[in-house]
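Lab channel / #folding
Pinned by the channel admin:
"Please post every new chain as: sequence first, then the structure tokens as a reply. Keep commentary short and put observations after the output so the thread stays searchable."

First post following the new format, from NK:
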Amino acid sequence: MAKNNLPIFLLSFLLASALCFGDENPAMRGKREIKGWCVASTAAPSDQLQSFLDYGCSEFDCSPIQPGGACFTPGDILAHASWILDKFYKVGAFCKDGLGFITEINPSHDGCQFP
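Reply from TO:
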């Protein structure tokens, strides 16, 4: 007597399709459009923003938020932290909990272009 393998085949096909084409597939990360911008929260502690800014500038080129850069604003840690938070968001698709939040309003201004 022959077994009917159609249900098993269909289940396997659906599972493979979900893994290959689903949003949570690690191979698909970075392949989709990132919407919005990650900006610093005014409620975030300044020392934590500064620590993240220091870390971020060890990972990325921060010349836009350094003296002479298009996004440099003396003494404005929120603006600088927003720029580096958005850089991480665009590259890794995460906005650091407790420090930033996603906005649909483009924070770019004057000659300062956010990542």
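NK: The beta strands are 37-40, 100-103.
TO: also worth noting, The CA atoms of residues 57 and 84 lie 8 Å apart.
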